[in-house]
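Q: Sequence in, structure out?
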Amino acid sequence: MNYHNVVFETSFGQASQLTDSDLVEIAFAGRSNVGKSSLINKIFNRRSLARVSAVPGKTATINFFRLENVRFADLPGYGYAKVSQGEKNRWSSLIETYFNSNRRIELVFQLIDMRHPPTKDDLMMVDFLIENEYPFVIVLTKKDKLSKKQQEERLKALQTEIPYADQIHMIPFSAVKGDGVEELREIIDEIAEENRE
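A: Exactly. Output:
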């Protein structure tokens, strides 16, 4: 796949706006400020495909991108405390509707900040994906902010912090150094290949 050819399609801020999908989809999920926009921009080698915000909780829409026969969904970041309850309800309704609307979700990249134990919201999301049998990969972001020794310690700790960790594919990732990008692209390529007409 030529990752430069990705195009932004549309974004929806209300659950009622979501349209049906005719393509296989890969979703990106994670809490606010986990580095989702940076990861998306790195995968597609584009500086501002996904807007990186200095203000957590800014991505309040589901943004859709398309590359060849695959659609990508950038879900709103969850868990940001300084947002009104009404906003939180709208986001969760948006995310729930996305997952419950009969879409061909082939994979979810679940992002977790490698520097810290998963938040309660992260664990809820992982549980949701397991319970609903969505295939997912955990992407451990901000790897470059840890020393090699700290990375090893965090990887070891995550084995006890995340349920069924030994059965989950985890990819340490750095948007700065590009670590993990090729592995993510290989997974995307495989899904695209399997779903060619």
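The radius of gyration is 16 Å.
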